[in-house]
Amino acid sequence: MRPERRADADSRAGRCRAVNRANVAATPQWAALDSSLQRAIEVVSVVLPFRSNRYVMDQLIDWDRVPDDPMFQLTFPQGDMLYEEEFDEVDRLLEQGADPRRVAEIADRIRARMNPQPGGQKTHNVPTLDGRRLHGIQHKYRETVLFFPKRGQTCHAYCTYCFRWAQFIGVKDLRFAAIGTDELVSYLRRNPDVTDVLITGGDPLTMKTAVLERYVEPLLQLGQLSSIRIGTKAPATWPHRFTTGSDADDVLRLFDRVVCSGKHLALMVHYSHPIELSTDLARHAIRRIRSTGATIRMQNPVARRINDDSAVWTDLWRTGVRLGCVPYYMFVARDTGPRNYFEVPLARCWEIYQGAYRHLSGLARTVRGPSMSAFPGKVHILGTTCMDGMEVFVLEYLQARDAALVRRPFFARFDPDVTWFDQLEPATERDAAFF
Ligand SMILES: *Cc1c(COP(=O)(O)O)cnc(C)c1O
Ligand code: SF4
Q1: Domain count of the fold of the chain
Q2: Which of these, 418, 406, 323, lies nearest to 368 by C-alpha position?
Q3: Does ligand 2 have an atom closer than 6 angstroms to the CB of 233?
Q4: Would 304 be classed as within a structural domain?
Q5: What are phi and psi of 133, to 5 degrees?
Q6: Whose CA is nearest to atom 7 of ligand 1?
Q7: pLDDT tens, position by position, 177-223
Q8: pTM exceeds 0.70 for this model
């Protein structure tokens, strides 16, 4: 079948066929792409994998604005994501037709310098049950357990700034080898303070409903749980999951059952840009999800070249509220992957947040940010001020490993270039306890 015809057939069936390094050259957009952009994608994707689909390519990316188009930046690897000498090295190896093992070795070396497991994910958040480490669960904040089902560790499309990128490249010991629901349930029974389970990935909605159901159903029996959350980008990058897809009605019935069981079901949807809310299909998906009684909460990071502009956020949150979604978190992009390419200084993140927030109605002012998921907790940047003649950041923890620190203002020396928590210094001795 011709690629276009196949794409139409896939859309009708709701099949998400990946566009990746192996087959991107067969898409109609590829031939029209500038040859230096083609080369950059070929070279960088050796290190940082990409995955897209025909919905993203046909409806979300504006090819007339490439390479500046935000959805292109979100989806495709860019030349400047590698250091120049790294790019040249990989480029040369490909040119020479080097042994794939040699190429893989170099790719691994470059990835290793990109902090593949930020925030102590691998070492500090893995709980134990009867002395055994439960991989596939993270329990950092008392009330909420993150659960990574084994079969939900991929996404419909990868984000180039993703902090879970290590999972996608198949480095075994970097993956969260997930446990089953039985162990999750045992763990929750043993930890009655937990009220929320957040099923995450990757994207759990890449799983067939029958599989997702096996993870969700046992949770409905647990009286201690008030909420089940599902972290997903499917409403943005593959809305067919809730509309025309062969499995769409089943997933909505599952949502309906969770709500009827008396629990709050929240889809924590990663929307990066208002364009993702603009298509008929995306809006149809939101209506169908909301018709089950599930709520949609919006959260995502600020990233240079994608959404580092207040107007983009005003539009995102306003449109979200119009469609019935609840703005939840604005994050600072994490210190991993091609961070130099995307990072926005904390001071600038705050300006973007404030510049958007001040134009919003109260219904959209549910959004909190900018927030950094750092090792000790979620650090909220409240702004800057002057203290004893010193310019400082005003900060607080929205979540903390040590719950006693939550919501207590503290201060760090102001620096306009700082991009992450570990670069901040306490303003006074009293503040040192928060670092
Ligand atoms: C953000 C986060 C949560 C959820 O925090 P909420 O403030 O309840 O949304 C839970 N665990 C980890 C590790 C997180 O980063
Ligand atoms: S949707 Fe989330 S987990 Fe998936 S690639 Fe994007 S940031 Fe990563």
Answers
A1: 1
A2: 406
A3: yes
A4: no
A5: -75, 130
A6: 399
A7: 567 889 999 999 999 999 999 999 899 999 999 999 999 999 999 99
A8: yes
